[in-house]
């Protein structure tokens, strides 16, 4: 039995955005961060979203991750309308649909790798026996089967990011959303983490990576380029598998 609540099957794009605008009102001036974004991502795609600082990619990430809502436009995840939801409803969609991987790992330092990965399952009400099976399997798959009892401070940067990826997968999300996942890693560790993402993609996962690193982005299946709040490029990546 899946640890994820039952959801209605959906055969269309896993993500569909149409005419998405996001305007921030500072009180004195309005800043239009996104200016009519149209974006569809199919289930099983690996998409890298790239752009310079201030391009709007962080705002787009917040919308894709259900951390914020658009000012206007339509937004669906797996056929479920997201635009216009209130905070509690948005959080419920986020918890079911999205697994996050952050640049800074966002692990709790006082607990073990095992406990960090287990946490979303605890909050999700998954039974202890099922949690143990799931966490053990995930940590083995990311190459940390022998590091389960280690705290984050006892792990390297690359190992911490592997724990974060395992945690992101714990509730079997529709989408894994990674924000600059190699930004705090050395070149070797970053290459290893990208290799892990590629393996997850081959297993059928839907991955969206936000990055400014074009070398990293070229290893995805598709590159979406955003600049000045608009999508200015959308093409297969040079190193698509």
Word description of this protein:
By secondary structure, this protein is an alpha/beta fold. It has a domain at 45-68 and 95-236: 3-Layer(aba) Sandwich (Rossmann fold), CATH 3.40.50. It has 7 helices and 10 strands. It has helices at residues 57-64, 87-97, 113-123, 128-141, 157-169, 187-202, 214-217, and strands at 15-25, 30-41, 46-50, 72-77, 80-81, 98-102, 175-179, 207-211, 222-227, 230-236. The strands form 2 sheets. The protein has a 6-stranded mixed β-sheet, sandwiched between helices. α3 (113-123) crosses α4 (128-141), α3 packs parallel to α5 (157-169) and α4 packs across α5. The longest helix is centred in the C-terminal third of the chain and has 16 residues, at 187-202.
Residue share in helices?
25-40%
Q: How does the helix and strand content classify structurally?
A: alpha/beta
Q: Which runs of at least 5 residues are low in confidence (pLDDT < 50)? A: 1-9
* CATH architecture term of the domain at 45-68 and 95-236: 3-Layer(aba) Sandwich
Radius of gyration: 18 Å
Largest sheet: 6 strands, mixed
What is the strand tally?
A: 10
What percent strand?
A: 25-35%
The CATH topology assignment of the domain at 45-68 and 95-236 is Rossmann fold
What order do the helices and strands follow? EEEHEEHEHHHEHEHEE
Overall pLDDT confidence:
90
Q: Give the N-terminus to C-terminus distance in angstroms.
A: 32 Å
Looking at CATH, the homologous superfamily of the domain at 45-68 and 95-236 is P-loop containing nucleotide triphosphate hydrolases
CATH class of the domain at 45-68 and 95-236: Alpha Beta
How many helices? The count is: 7
Q: How are the strands of the biggest sheet laid out side by side?
A: 6-7-8-3-9-10
The best one-word shape is globular
């Amino acid at each position: 039995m899946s640890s994820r609540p039952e959801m209605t099957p959906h055969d269309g794009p896993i993500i569909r955005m149409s005419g998405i605008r996001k305007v921030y009102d500072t009180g004195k001036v309005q800043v239009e961060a996104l200016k009519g974004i149209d974006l569809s991502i199919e289930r099983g795609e690996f998409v890298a979203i790239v752009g310079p600082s201030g391009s709007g990619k962080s705002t787009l990430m917040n919308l894709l991750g259900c951390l914020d809502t658009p000012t206007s436009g339509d937004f669906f995840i797996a056929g479920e309308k997201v635009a216009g939801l209130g905070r509690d409803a948005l959080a419920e969609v986020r918890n079911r649909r999205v697994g996050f991987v952050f640049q800074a790992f966002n692990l709790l330092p006082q607990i073990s790798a095992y406990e960090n990965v287990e946490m979303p399952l605890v909050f999700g009400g998954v039974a202890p026996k099922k949690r143990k099976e799931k966490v053990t399997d995930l940590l083995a798959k990311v190459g940390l089967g022998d590091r389960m009892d280690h705290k984050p401070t006892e792990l390297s940067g690359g190992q911490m990011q592997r724990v974060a990826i395992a945690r992101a997968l714990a509730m079997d999300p529709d989408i894994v959303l990674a924000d600059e996942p190699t930004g705090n890693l050395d070149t070797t560790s970053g290459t290893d983490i990208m290799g892990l993402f590629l393996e997850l993609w081959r297993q059928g996962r839907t991955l969206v990576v936000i990055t400014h690193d074009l070398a990293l982005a070229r290893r995805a299946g598709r590159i979406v380029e955003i600049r000045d709040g608009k999508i200015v490029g959308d093409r297969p990546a040079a190193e698509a598998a």
